[in-house]
Amino acid sequence: MRSLVIAVWGKNGSGRSTIASNLAVCLAGKGYLVALVGASKAYGSVQHYLGMEVPEEKSIKKALEAINEDDMVKSFVQHKRLKDLFVMSLSNTENCLRLKTVKEEEGKSLLINTKDKFNYYIIDCTESFGDTLTTLGCRYADRVVEVIRPSIQAAAFRAAHRELIDGLKLASKLIPVANNNKNLIDINELEQKLKLKFTGILPYSRSVERSEGTGEPVCLSGAVTRADREYIKEIRKIVVLLEAK
Ligand SMILES: Nc1ncnc2c1ncn2[C@@H]1O[C@H](COP(=O)(O)OP(=O)(O)OP(=O)(O)O)[C@@H](O)[C@H]1O
Ligand SMILES: [Mg+2]
């Protein structure tokens, strides 16, 4: 079975989880078996973008502690409508005081034992390479969708990570996208400054913003405004690139 690991990485608040969930529903809608894994070690987050709940008995915490493959796979929660879409994350009711740092061996074992069960294994990373699942996800990834919200802060964040990106050999795998573009800064100038070319420029869209609360990614609920249509078009462009790999 063709199996690709996709890491969605970028600065906090750049729009990673929104993009990861839209990519996931788009790919699952095309008949691929898709996993969406939340790398947050602080709280269960990514399931909310899909209107889902992860109970404590299915928390990624359990999967990380599991010894055998079957127990790891059991922690994936199936989406109610899209039967080919599965989420793994910390549970909705996690207590951060009970959480410990993910050990490298645990993370590796989880990734290696579960990634090949899916056509697309999307990891919703955190911004920090200090987080085990984020670093492992980017290292194992076939493609890294890098989300950049066009801003001065984003440029500083990117510049600060240049050496690390090179060190992890991510350059050849990167799909850089500008997200939540409000035309506050010049995109061409930003590209020149960061020495990269955006594969897609996703606009600000109110429906996209609201989807975090409704649990209905716009690629599932459909477009209402021109900005929504543009956002969906750009997501589909990324999907085509992922399919071409
Ligand atoms: N294209 C967009 N248009 C409008 N709002 C957006 C867009 N992309 C993301 N948002 C909103 O921006 C906020 C941050 O997005 P999201 O949660 O996806 O980012 P993140 O990088 O996963 O953040 P976190 O650091 O909290 O994990 C959310 O409220 C989301 O609804
Ligand atoms: Mg997020």
UniProtKB/TrEMBL annotation:
Annotated InterPro entries: AAA_dom, P-loop_NTPase, ParA/MinD_ATPase
Origin: domain of life: Bacteria
GO cellular component terms listed in the entry, alphabetical order: cytoplasmic side of plasma membrane; cytosol
Protein's UniProt keywords contain Cytoplasm: no
GO molecular-function terms, A-Z: ATP binding; ATP hydrolysis activity
Matching Pfam families: AAA_31
Gene Ontology BP terms: negative regulation of cell division
This protein's record includes keyword Transferase: no
Keywords recorded for this protein, A-Z: ATP-binding, Nucleotide-binding
AAA domain ranges (all copies): 10-151
Protein name: Septum formation inhibitor-activating ATPase MinD
Annotated source species: Anaerobacterium chartisolvens
Lineage, opening ranks: Bacteria, Bacillati, Bacillota, Clostridia, Eubacteriales
